[in-house]
Amino acid sequence: MRRPDLEFVQFEVFEVSPQNTAVMTTEGKLLCSYPGPAIQVPVDISMDECFLQELSSFLVQMDVDILDSTPTTTKAGSAVREVRDTVHPRYISGLLVGILRGFGQPAKVDRITKRIGDEVLWDDALKPWRRSPLWLVLRVTLQSSLRVDGLYKPFILFFHAHLLRKCMVRKFPSELLHVMRVKMTRRISKLGPAVSQQIYEFVHETALDTEALLSNRWSAFQAIGSSVPTFELKTLDFAPDTHLSLDSSYDYLTKMLDSVSHAHSRGSFNPSESRLYPIDDFSQFSNGQLAAAISNGQHVAIADFEISVERYLESWVQASMNNKSALDVIASCIEQYYDGAKELYGANPEDNSIMILTIMDLWVALDRLAIQQCPLLGDYSPEIPSTFLHDLLLHRSSAIHRALLIEEYLCRRHEGTHQSTSIFSNNVDESCFAVKFFQTSDDLERLHDEIYEYAQRERKKKRIELVSLKEQSKSLLLQASRLSHERAKNYYYRDEHDTDTCRKCQLECEAESLTIHVRAARRTVTAYGRIVRV
Fold first, then answer.
1. Fewer Cβ within 10 Å of end Cβ, the chain: N or C?
2. d(C-alpha 21, C-alpha 521), whole Å
3. Which of 246-260, 467-481, 512-526 has the lowest mean pLDDT?
4. What letters, b where the CB count within 10 A reaches 16 and e where it falls short, cover 13-40?
């Protein structure tokens, strides 16, 4: 329960212990949103004594009553309560929320999503081991309360450092202190400059004190282990102490020694595929060469290409800024790499994150080369959000640094955008990319003039052809008007009109058959190395 303002009291409901089925059937971690239903009740109702008494009675009774929301199992032919599973929360998330909604209204809340690493561990025990729901309640409450000011993550970092100091005083084992320090330093590295100076100094001092304590413990352990023990050799009896009896193991050892096969011959390892690393010239990947290497050795070829992109792409782009064929090289690399990597990585989120990061590195190179050849592209949005890479699962610091550079490049591209119209827009206006590119291209304007002049010449020819055909039609019809239809004797010696032999009909048919065809697009004009039909 929280009071966001003076008018309402807000009730927020969420589940902290999912059922065993949800935890055990989910691969990886559960994605849960908090809170669930949220209801706002006016202050005058929520502060009423009768309302509070009934609400408290309902919550207390729901905590002790055994209802149909409790899971059951069958034992000895009868249904009994399943104490090893969690209770379904529908009487709170459904019934109580429905009752509160009758007094108030649904609240608009900003929900948070967490990846819950819950476990259901059971081995010869009454109940399975589950992660403590209280810690989740505390974290959700803190994050939802401190979210506006952005204090949740700095507070958790401070809490971890404070807890580590308490554990050092309580003389916790060295391995636990080491793990706690690693988790604390990982949090401060993820927050980066968002941490205030006071918290940073506190965490830094805690890490140094932990390192000093662990170093002192290790030095003390080494000192103890390096001391020479005192042997009393006179008390030893070497003859019986060194006698090893394996009476029950003779048959087993004989069987193992006899089973050793000497028929297998060892051969030298000669890998068939050739390595792509190190290759710093990306033109060697184009024209299907990368795809061919992937088909010969999928894992090795893709790994080599990803290393080449990480280490040599930047230097190759700098050297290829004035090379017009570099665009085709990068585009070919993207297509070949994606076709091979998507089949290899499948649905693995970590591998797919590396694939997306590699493709984005190539896209940045492609965008830089394209803007170098066509500066007008820089005035339009890249159409990729600057937060595109936030959902990737990257573990190596070098990969995180590459993602940071890509995000900074996308931010610069968005800041340098001067046109609100999308580059992919089909609306033909002054802000359209096609119109602006045409206005800045002398070659396209010259091509337009050639097309227009050619069309005018063809139109003039068609007009002359039309006039000629009209004159020819008039002449044929005039000749036909001066003639009479011819008649001839048929098989029964009767006079009849024969259209096949009648000259008048032949001239009229010839005049009607005169046609003029629409001008066909048969001319080709070369522009930018491509054939344009006009």
1. N
2. 67
3. 512-526
4. bbbbbbebebbeeeeeeeebebbbbbbb
Compute the distance between CA of residue 333 and CA of residue 294 in angstroms, rounded to an integer: 12
Enter the DSSP assignment of 94: I
CA distance 298 to 303: 9
Residues 407, 484 within the same domain: no
Cα diameter, the chain: 155
Position 230 pLDDT exceeds 70: no
Q: How many domains does the chain have?
A: 4
DSSP string computed for 172-230: --HHHHHHHHHHHHHHHHHHGGGS-HHHHHHHHHHHHHHHHHHHHHHHHHHHHHHSPPP
Helix residue ranges per DSSP H, 394-502:
397-415, 433-439, 442-481
CB 293 within 8 A of CB 273: yes
Count the Cβ atoms, other than its own, within 10 Å of residue 517.
7
**Per-residue pLDDT tens digits for 401-421:** 999 999 999 999 999 888 888
Q: Is 98 inside any structural domain?
A: yes
Is 195 found in the same domain as 136? no
Boundary (domain end) residue, out of 112, 144, 176: 144
pTM, two decimal places: 0.42
pLDDT at 532 over 80: no
Query: Are residues 449 and 396 part of one domain?
Result: no
Rg (CA), the chain: 42
The long-range contacts involving 339-344, CB below 8 angstroms and separated by at least 24 positions, are 339/291, 340/290, 340/291, 340/294, 340/298, 340/301, 340/302, 341/302, 343/298, 344/298, 344/299, 344/302
Domain co-membership, 332 together with 413:
yes
Residues 304, 276: contact at Cβ < 8 Å? Answer: yes
Whether 249 is covered by a domain: the verdict is: no
Residue predicted with more confidence, 379 or 277:
379
Task: Give CA–CA dist 81/72, Å, rounded.
Answer: 4
Backbone angles phi, psi at 129, to 5 degrees: -85, 130
pLDDT in tens, 26-80: 888 999 999 999 999 999 999 999 999 999 999 999 888 888 888 888 888 888 8
Encode pLDDT of 464-503 as tens digits: 999 999 999 999 889 888 888 887 776 666 777 777 778 8
What tens digit of pLDDT does each residue of 11-27 get? 999 999 998 889 999 88
Q: Which range marks the domain in which residue 513 is found?
A: 442-533
